[in-house]
Design a protein that fits this description.
This protein is mainly beta. It is about 10% helix and about 35% strand. The protein folds into 2 domains: about 1-75, no CATH class; about 75-114, no CATH class. It starts with a strand and ends with a strand.
């Protein structure tokens, strides 16, 4: 099965639909099928659950970045930085590696032990 993300205003993902591999032989064939099904001319982008194309599996509310050809999740905190390789947000301070659990504290810009 092939998964397709529908882009809305600002390239924000509105929905994800699945199309049979027999129909979605190419990405364009899948897009054409979905637009015929819905009687629309929407913009759809193929997405893979393993992130093998477009960096990440699309999620509702993610943004499609055309320049990076990537689905980017919502920024979780103002201080976090986009990793240009993975197109995922990272804290400005590495997560501690000591087998404890932590939550990000945006006020202190650090990890607080739970």
């Amino acid at each position: 099965m092939a998964n397709f993300a529908k882009l809305g205003i600002g390239n924000i993902i509105e929905t994800i639909e699945t199309v049979s591999d027999n129909i979605a032989i190419t990405e364009q064939a899948g897009v054409d099928f979905l637009n015929n099904l819905h009687g629309s001319r929407d913009v759809w982008k193929k997405t893979e659950t393993d992130g093998s194309i477009r960096k990440n599996y699309a999620g509702i509310g993610y943004t499609y970045d055309e320049d990076r050809n990537a689905f980017i999740p919502k920024k979780p905190f103002a201080s976090w930085i986009l990793n240009e390789t993975t197109c995922r947000w990272e804290a400005p301070v590495a997560y501690p590696d000591d087998n404890n659990r932590y939550n990000w504290n945006e006020t202190t810009s650090n990890w607080d032990i739970i």
